[in-house]
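Quick one, probably user error.
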């Protein structure tokens, strides 16, 4: 994906290989950000269930904020497939290799929350 992605940025003045790698990583991190959004909604669904709030109404209200928008705000069993988890684990690895353990732990939590939501769904 990196070489295809890099050709999309031919009009940019890329200073060095690290800049190209960061652009590629950020573009590929689109999937982890979606996964994070899904996990955040699922965590709120647990809180809504515990407090008697309706997650559908809460998500609808939050989605009206133009900075957030309505997409990926439906509570669900969590994310699946290969891309989200693979790309998140890639971010974890890159963060660890660059001496950013707190940032790596942040992304690990997205995966943990997804597993938590799957177990909540199965145990209903």
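Nope, works fine. Designed sequence:
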């Amino acid at each position: 994906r990196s070489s295809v992605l890099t050709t999309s940025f031919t009009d940019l003045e890329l200073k060095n290989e690290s800049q190209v790698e960061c652009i590629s990583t950020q573009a590929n991190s689109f999937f982890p950000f979606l996964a994070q959004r899904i996990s955040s909604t699922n965590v709120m669904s647990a809180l809504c269930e515990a407090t008697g709030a309706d997650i559908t109404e809460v998500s609808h209200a939050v989605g009206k904020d133009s900075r957030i928008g309505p997409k990926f705000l439906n509570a669900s069993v969590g994310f699946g497939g290969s891309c989200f988890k693979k790309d998140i684990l890639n971010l974890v690895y890159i963060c660890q290799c660059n001496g950013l353990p707190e940032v790596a732990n942040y992304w690990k939590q997205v995966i943990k929350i997804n597993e938590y939501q799957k177990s909540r769904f199965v145990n209903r």
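Residues 25 and 51 are 38 Å apart (CA to CA).
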